[in-house]
Design a protein that fits this description.
The chain is globular, with a radius of gyration of 19 Å. About 5% of the residues have low confidence. The chain is built from 15 helices and 2 strands. The longest helix has 28 residues. It is mostly helical and 326 residues long. α2 crosses α5 and α5 packs antiparallel against α13. It has a two-stranded antiparallel sheet.
Length: 326
């Protein structure tokens, strides 16, 4: 993805937070990035999926339809979808570790160990990425190999803005967009609510949905990554809205000046393996699977399993069909 375009997406998020007084920032969300990467066959399809999903979610949030959508889907199916996404995250962590086994193994060991002792997601992510990167550099990789080539291409790709009109005549792209929408509905409600609770503020889910959707559209139209609402420690700051805005402005600056691709030359993709696994297996799956099994175990299980082997949209359809047949 283009770092400059992604940086502009962060600026859109910062503007939305200022206008609507939102304490939930938008940023890179592991679940959405992993899902989009698997749904699209190439960059063009991935960007199209993000743009179309952004337009759909902007309409849903703009007309205040999030609550109605949630009522139609139901808590059981939503929890099953999120549990299935957690399994996808954990599986992605295992796959990434294979890219460079020494750093991937260290990422796993450190992520699980730090999270077990601290129960702190921020410490876990920072420690696992740093330790895996040190191992990667010490084993003589550094700027060598395929990942460096990719990062250099990313730097070149991100040096100028190019409009990428979305593909509109592909059912594969539309199905992917609907899958991303299903994930974003759950993410905006759960992540937005959790962050707002930390800040002792009401969760304006519809406004957060519009903000993240506009950030997605602007970013992906010019080749940038999806930018979604996240659970952020900025909510615990004395002024959570200002802290969220500052976070997004800092990220925009890092991306627009081209610092992130330069750092990425030294950081292997395997460094993300451990924290993706912990996020999926330790945080996302357990609570959501319990919620999915609490009221209607068959519907919840079917939704989670089908989501894990396909995507959230197909998982939602499987859950709705199971509920209808039952």
């Amino acid at each position: 993805f283009s770092p400059v375009a992604s940086g502009i997406g962060f600026l859109v998020g910062a503007l939305g937070a200022i206008l609507w007084g939102l304490c939930t920032p938008v940023s890179f969300q592991a679940e959405t990035i992993v899902l989009v990467a698997g749904l699209g066959k190439d960059l063009k399809e991935r960007l199209s999926i993000v743009v179309i999903a952004g337009v759909i979610m902007a309409v849903v949030g703009g007309f205040g339809l999030m609550e109605a959508t949630m009522a139609f889907i139901g808590d059981t199916i939503l929890a099953g979808m999120l549990a299935g996404v957690g399994i996808i995250l954990a599986r992605s962590g295992v796959d990434l570790a294979k890219e460079h086994l020494p750093s991937g193994v260290i990422s796993f060991v450190v992520a699980i160990g730090v999270f077990a002792f601290t129960d702190n997601v921020a410490y876990m992510i920072a420690a696992s990425v740093i330790c895996a990167t040190v191992v990667y550099v010490l084993t003589g990789k550094g700027q060598a190999g395929q990942e460096t080539t990719a990062s250099l291409e990313t730097t070149k790709f991100g040096s100028k803005l190019t409009l990428h009109p979305p593909i509109l005549n592909s059912w594969h792209v539309w199905r992917g967009a609907l899958a991303v929408c299903c994930l974003q509905i759950g993410g905006n409600i759960s992540y937005g609510t959790i962050t707002a609770q930390i800040a002792n503020m009401p969760p304006p889910v519809d406004k957060l949905t519009v903000m993240s959707a506009l950030a997605d559209i602007v970013s992906a139209l010019f080749g940038g990554s999806p930018i979604e609402g996240i659970i952020s420690a900025t909510a615990a700051a004395p002024h959570p809205v200002s802290a969220a805005v500052v976070l997004m402005l800092i990220m925009a600056a890092i991306l627009i000046v081209g610092l992130l691709p330069k750092l990425a030359r030294y950081i292997p993709v395997s460094a993300a393996a451990g924290y993706l696994f912990v996020l999926g297996a330790f945080l996302v799956v357990p609570d959501n699977m319990l919620a999915a099994l609490a009221v209607d175990p068959l519907v919840g299980t079917m939704t989670a399993v089908v989501t894990a082997i396909s995507d959230p949209f197909i998982g939602m359809l499987a859950g709705l069909l199971t509920r209808f047949l039952m």
